Every structure is written in C-alpha cells, then in structure tokens.
Amino acid sequence: MRDYSELRKKAEAATPGEWHIQCGDDSSFMCMTAIAANRKRTGNCGQFAGDEPLIAITYHQQYPVVDADPDGDDCGDANSEYIAAANPATILALLDELDSLRAKPAKPKRNDHPPAFDIAYEAMASAGVRWRSGSTKPAAFIQWKARINAGATDAEMIAGAEKYARYCNATGCEVKQAQTFFGRGEHYSADWTVRAPTAAPGKFDPVAHINQARTAEEWNEIIDITPR
User: Fold this and answer.
1) For 99-130, how does the pLDDT look when each residue is reduced to its tens digit (9 = 90+)?
2) Distance between CA 223 and CA 217 in Å, rounded?
3) 79 lies in some domain
4) Which of 46, 72, 103 is the last residue of a domain?
C-alpha cells in the first residue's frame, strides 16, 4: 500500500483553490500558457503582468488557437489543462476519499468463510459422512451467520456438528441438509449422543441381569456353576 503523506503535504503547501489556464495572446507569447489562480488575465494583452497570480508557465510546440473560448480554459495545450485540473483541491479530495476507503474493513470474498464455519461444515466429511443432497456451502454459511447474529457461538455449533457427524456415522440415519442443520431449528443444539441399544421391553436381558451382581454370592445365585 503506497504512502501518499508526502503528496498530501505538497498539496497543502501549494496555492489553494481552483487553477485556470491563461494563454499568451501575441506573436511572442503564443507558445506559452500560464497556470493561474484567476480565471481571466489581468490585462489580456502581450506579456503577463507582474501582479498576476501565476502558478506555473508551460511551453508547447504547436501554436494554440488563442481566444477560441474566451470564457473558458481551452488553450489547446493538454499538459496545461491536466496541470490545472490536478490542482491541490482536487488532489486533497482524492486523498481524503482514498483514506476513507482504506479505513473501511475489506469485504470478504464470496467464498471466504471464517475458519470456525469451515471446521463445522467439514465435520461430516471428517466422520466419513456426506451432507444430504442439495446442501451448498454458501446456503449453509448464510444460516450460520444468522445463528451467530442471534447469539449462538462458534464453539457450540462446531461441537454440535461434530456430534451429529458421529451420530450419523454410527446410526446410518438420514442426514440433514447443511443449511437445515444450521438453520432456525438449531439442530446443532440437539442431543446427538450415540447410545448403546437396549433390550426390548418385557424380554429377559441376560447381560443386564449379570451386570446387576455386586458380590460373589450374587454371582453364584445368578450363574449356577455346580458340576453336573
């Protein structure tokens, strides 16, 4: 990023206000153009007067059409016109606008997502599961930002996505779309704990029955080890 502080200092030190072009108007001065603070010449005849507020003098090879535009700044000299246009007021205005643009935070690129979102979105792939068909990262990010703005934290949504990925991997359930998971339903906050299967009600579960034993006597009662 270039530093324009020196240019600003020079512009502030130069003659302020708008600059205008004044043309020489006789055979001796037809190739000379003046940059001045006044729009029109003081005397408008022959040499420039000593009290005229001149800023700079330029010389050019081709004779301009003098007084082609008596009320304007057209002397046919593009360099003089450029110098007059690049006056201190114009330069300072451009520098102020540049400083203002630099002070604004840069807009993120279309696919520039925060690391936290990338971690949460990729949690499914890390667990060997894919988001449901129709999922798009941009759509999911819109929902992510909405939840953040509503008070959710990166940490809780990352944790929710990781738990959901493990749950889907273990159970083989139908996976949600990413934008739905991070959407208004706040599915990331649900309990996605993977639990061991339990015996159906009313059926004898020998493993659970054995696990109830706490002493050797209880083991002997549960398991009959008497030789037959």
Assistant:
1) 988 887 766 566 678 999 999 999 999 999 99
2) 10
3) yes
4) 103
